[in-house]
Design brief:
Strand order of the largest sheet: 1-2
Shape: globular
Helix content: 55-70%
Order of helices and strands: EEHHHH
Structural class: alpha+beta
Distance between the termini: 35 Å
Radius of gyration: 11 Å
Largest sheet: 2 strands, antiparallel
Length: 77
């Protein structure tokens, strides 16, 4: 499955930014500060994005969920 594969529903980062594809999600993570990229929540998101790009299927849904969990982790603390 290509990195251009779209999520079923976009991942809303804030009121202005939505991530629609695996590539947009990966690019978002790569723009985070390096120390943030190494946090477990973002590592999980990266792993599921890679699995989604390599395998497709249900992994795309898991990647979307991982992105949502990583983005919302600060709200749960």
């Amino acid at each position: 499955m290509p990195w251009s594969a779209a999520f079923d529903d976009p991942v809303r980062v804030d009121n202005k930014l939505q991530l629609r594809t695996l590539q947009e999600a990966a690019d978002y993570i790569m723009r985070l500060p390096e120390d943030a990229q190494h946090e477990p929540r973002w590592q999980t998101a990266i792993e599921t994005l890679i699995n989604a790009a390599e395998t497709g299927g249900g992994w795309v849904m898991f990647a979307r969920i991982a992105m949502l969990r990583a983005l919302n982790a600060d709200r749960r603390d």
